[in-house]
Amino acid sequence: MSLFAFLGLHQSSAVVVKKITPTFWWAGMHNPELQIMLYGDNIGSCDVSLSSPDIALRDVVKQENPNYLLLYVDLSEAAPQTFNIILKQGRKETVVPYELKQRRPHSSEVKGFDASDVLYLIMPDRFANGNPANDIVPGMKENKVNRNEQYGRHGGDLKGIENHLDYLEDLGVTAIWLNPIQENDMPGGSYHGYAITDYFQVDRRYGSNEEFRQLVEKAQAKGMKVVMDMIFNHCGSHNFIFSDKPSTDWFNFKSNYVGTSYKTASVQDVHASEYEYKIAVDGWFTRQMPDLNQRNRHVAQFLIQSSIWWIEYAGINGIRQDTHPYADFDFMARWCKAVNDEYPDFNIVGETWLNSNVLVSFWQKDSKLAAPRNSNLRTVMDFPLMDQMNKAFDEETTDWAGGLYRLYDYLTQDLVYADPMNLLTFLDNHDTSRFSTDDKKAANLTRFKQAITFLLTTRGIPQIYYGTEILMTGEKSEGDGMLRKDFPGGWEGDARNCFNASGRTAQEEAAHAFIKKMLNWRKGNEVIGKGTLKHFSINQGVYVYERKYNGKSVVVIMNGNDREAKISLTPYAEVLPKPQAKDFLSGKTITLGKELTLGNREILVLEF
Ligand code: CA
Question: Which residues pair with 379 in a beta bridge?
Answer without folding.
Answer: 349
